[in-house]
Amino acid sequence: xxxxxxxxxxxxxxxxxxxxxxxxxxxxxxxxxxxxxxxxxxxxxxxxxxxxxxxxxxxxxxxxxxxxxxxxxxxxxxxxxxxxxxxxxxxxxxxxxxxxxxxxxxxxxxxxxxxxxxxxxxxxxxxxxxxxxxxxxxxxxxxxxxxxxxxxxxxxxxxxxxxxxxxxxxxxxxxxxxxxxxxxxxx
Length: 187
Hints:
Helices cover 23% and strands 36% of the residues. By secondary structure, the protein is of the alpha+beta class. It has an eight-stranded antiparallel beta barrel with strand order 1-2-3-4-5-6-7-8.
Protein backbone atom coordinates (compact mmCIF):
# COMPACT_ATOMS: atom_id res chain seq x y z
CA UNK A 1 0.00 0.00 0.00
CA UNK A 2 1.43 3.42 -0.88
CA UNK A 3 2.04 6.08 1.75
CA UNK A 4 -0.85 8.22 0.47
CA UNK A 5 -3.20 5.23 0.51
CA UNK A 6 -2.10 4.44 4.05
CA UNK A 7 -2.69 8.03 5.10
CA UNK A 8 -6.16 7.92 3.58
CA UNK A 9 -6.96 4.63 5.30
CA UNK A 10 -5.78 5.91 8.68
CA UNK A 11 -7.78 9.09 8.30
CA UNK A 12 -10.92 7.20 7.27
CA UNK A 13 -10.75 4.53 9.96
CA UNK A 14 -9.14 6.41 12.84
CA UNK A 15 -11.29 6.59 15.92
CA UNK A 16 -13.93 4.10 14.71
CA UNK A 17 -13.57 0.83 16.68
CA UNK A 18 -16.34 -0.92 14.67
CA UNK A 19 -14.34 -0.93 11.44
CA UNK A 20 -11.73 -3.60 10.87
CA UNK A 21 -8.32 -2.09 10.30
CA UNK A 22 -6.45 -3.14 7.14
CA UNK A 23 -3.06 -4.85 7.53
CA UNK A 24 -0.23 -2.86 6.13
CA UNK A 25 2.57 -4.80 4.53
CA UNK A 26 5.61 -2.61 4.02
CA UNK A 27 9.30 -2.92 4.83
CA UNK A 28 9.33 -0.37 7.65
CA UNK A 29 10.04 -1.89 11.06
CA UNK A 30 7.43 -1.34 13.73
CA UNK A 31 7.58 -1.88 17.42
CA UNK A 32 3.99 -3.04 17.76
CA UNK A 33 0.99 -2.96 15.44
CA UNK A 34 -0.16 0.42 14.20
CA UNK A 35 1.50 2.46 16.96
CA UNK A 36 4.66 2.87 14.90
CA UNK A 37 2.68 4.13 11.91
CA UNK A 38 0.67 6.58 14.01
CA UNK A 39 3.84 7.77 15.73
CA UNK A 40 5.46 8.19 12.30
CA UNK A 41 2.39 10.08 11.05
CA UNK A 42 2.46 12.34 14.14
CA UNK A 43 6.14 13.05 13.57
CA UNK A 44 5.53 13.77 9.88
CA UNK A 45 2.67 16.10 10.80
CA UNK A 46 4.85 17.85 13.39
CA UNK A 47 7.70 18.24 10.90
CA UNK A 48 5.27 19.49 8.25
CA UNK A 49 3.81 22.06 10.65
CA UNK A 50 7.31 23.24 11.61
CA UNK A 51 8.22 23.62 7.92
CA UNK A 52 5.02 25.55 7.24
CA UNK A 53 5.68 27.90 10.18
CA UNK A 54 9.28 28.39 9.05
CA UNK A 55 8.06 29.04 5.50
CA UNK A 56 5.55 31.56 6.77
CA UNK A 57 8.25 33.44 8.68
CA UNK A 58 10.56 33.31 5.68
CA UNK A 59 7.79 34.68 3.46
CA UNK A 60 6.97 37.35 6.03
CA UNK A 61 10.59 38.45 6.26
CA UNK A 62 10.83 38.61 2.45
CA UNK A 63 7.69 40.73 2.42
CA UNK A 64 8.99 42.85 5.28
CA UNK A 65 12.25 43.34 3.40
CA UNK A 66 10.32 44.73 0.46
CA UNK A 67 8.03 46.80 2.64
CA UNK A 68 10.96 49.01 3.59
CA UNK A 69 10.71 52.68 2.81
CA UNK A 70 13.04 54.63 0.53
CA UNK A 71 14.92 56.20 3.44
CA UNK A 72 18.62 55.68 2.87
CA UNK A 73 21.42 56.49 0.46
CA UNK A 74 20.95 56.09 -3.29
CA UNK A 75 23.18 56.30 -6.34
CA UNK A 76 21.60 58.10 -9.31
CA UNK A 77 21.27 56.16 -12.57
CA UNK A 78 24.31 57.66 -14.28
CA UNK A 79 26.34 57.59 -11.07
CA UNK A 80 26.71 61.37 -11.11
CA UNK A 81 25.45 61.85 -7.56
CA UNK A 82 24.77 60.13 -4.26
CA UNK A 83 21.47 61.19 -2.71
CA UNK A 84 20.17 60.63 0.82
CA UNK A 85 16.41 60.24 1.30
CA UNK A 86 15.23 61.10 4.81
CA UNK A 87 12.23 62.18 6.86
CA UNK A 88 11.47 65.89 6.71
CA UNK A 89 8.60 66.43 9.11
CA UNK A 90 5.44 64.82 7.73
CA UNK A 91 7.02 64.04 4.35
CA UNK A 92 10.17 62.63 2.80
CA UNK A 93 12.90 64.67 1.17
CA UNK A 94 16.27 63.98 -0.44
CA UNK A 95 19.55 65.87 -0.60
CA UNK A 96 22.69 65.43 -2.65
CA UNK A 97 25.45 64.15 -0.34
CA UNK A 98 28.22 63.79 -2.93
CA UNK A 99 28.98 64.20 -6.62
CA UNK A 100 31.12 62.04 -8.88
CA UNK A 101 32.76 65.26 -10.07
CA UNK A 102 32.27 67.70 -7.16
CA UNK A 103 34.35 70.54 -8.58
CA UNK A 104 33.67 72.78 -11.56
CA UNK A 105 36.38 71.96 -14.13
CA UNK A 106 36.64 75.64 -15.18
CA UNK A 107 37.09 77.13 -11.71
CA UNK A 108 38.32 74.16 -9.66
CA UNK A 109 35.83 75.13 -6.97
CA UNK A 110 32.84 73.11 -5.71
CA UNK A 111 29.94 73.12 -8.18
CA UNK A 112 27.16 75.61 -7.48
CA UNK A 113 23.56 75.96 -8.60
CA UNK A 114 24.49 78.19 -11.58
CA UNK A 115 21.37 77.32 -13.62
CA UNK A 116 18.81 78.14 -10.94
CA UNK A 117 16.09 80.43 -12.30
CA UNK A 118 16.30 82.34 -8.99
CA UNK A 119 19.53 84.36 -9.34
CA UNK A 120 19.88 84.66 -5.54
CA UNK A 121 20.37 80.87 -5.29
CA UNK A 122 23.04 80.47 -7.97
CA UNK A 123 25.94 80.54 -5.52
CA UNK A 124 24.67 77.76 -3.25
CA UNK A 125 26.67 74.51 -3.46
CA UNK A 126 25.17 71.48 -5.19
CA UNK A 127 26.40 69.13 -2.44
CA UNK A 128 23.95 69.45 0.42
CA UNK A 129 21.17 70.78 -1.81
CA UNK A 130 17.68 69.37 -1.31
CA UNK A 131 16.38 67.99 -4.61
CA UNK A 132 13.28 66.01 -3.56
CA UNK A 133 10.76 67.88 -1.44
CA UNK A 134 7.41 67.15 0.19
CA UNK A 135 7.14 63.48 -0.81
CA UNK A 136 3.89 62.17 0.64
CA UNK A 137 2.54 58.60 0.38
CA UNK A 138 0.32 57.93 -2.63
CA UNK A 139 -0.20 54.21 -2.18
CA UNK A 140 1.96 51.18 -1.51
CA UNK A 141 5.62 52.04 -2.17
CA UNK A 142 4.72 55.32 -3.93
CA UNK A 143 5.23 58.96 -2.98
CA UNK A 144 4.54 62.25 -4.75
CA UNK A 145 6.04 65.68 -4.27
CA UNK A 146 8.50 67.87 -6.16
CA UNK A 147 11.97 67.43 -7.61
CA UNK A 148 14.53 70.12 -8.31
CA UNK A 149 16.87 69.50 -11.26
CA UNK A 150 20.15 71.40 -10.82
CA UNK A 151 21.06 70.61 -14.44
CA UNK A 152 18.36 73.00 -15.72
CA UNK A 153 17.52 74.95 -12.55
CA UNK A 154 13.81 74.02 -12.57
CA UNK A 155 11.40 72.27 -10.20
CA UNK A 156 9.02 69.57 -11.42
CA UNK A 157 6.20 67.43 -10.06
CA UNK A 158 7.71 64.16 -8.87
CA UNK A 159 6.57 60.62 -8.34
CA UNK A 160 8.84 58.17 -6.55
CA UNK A 161 8.22 54.42 -6.64
CA UNK A 162 10.09 51.83 -4.62
CA UNK A 163 10.33 49.01 -7.18
CA UNK A 164 12.21 46.74 -4.78
CA UNK A 165 14.26 47.16 -1.62
CA UNK A 166 17.20 48.35 -3.76
CA UNK A 167 15.57 50.05 -6.78
CA UNK A 168 13.92 53.47 -6.68
CA UNK A 169 12.20 54.95 -9.75
CA UNK A 170 12.21 58.76 -9.69
CA UNK A 171 9.98 60.52 -12.19
CA UNK A 172 9.81 64.24 -12.91
CA UNK A 173 6.91 65.63 -14.95
CA UNK A 174 5.78 68.85 -16.61
CA UNK A 175 2.15 68.53 -17.69
CA UNK A 176 2.11 65.14 -19.46
CA UNK A 177 5.79 64.95 -20.32
CA UNK A 178 7.72 62.83 -17.85
CA UNK A 179 11.24 61.54 -17.47
CA UNK A 180 12.04 58.58 -15.25
CA UNK A 181 15.38 57.76 -13.65
CA UNK A 182 16.36 54.61 -11.78
CA UNK A 183 18.36 54.94 -8.58
CA UNK A 184 20.00 52.04 -6.79
CA UNK A 185 20.43 51.73 -3.04
CA UNK A 186 24.00 52.28 -1.94
CA UNK A 187 25.69 50.30 0.78
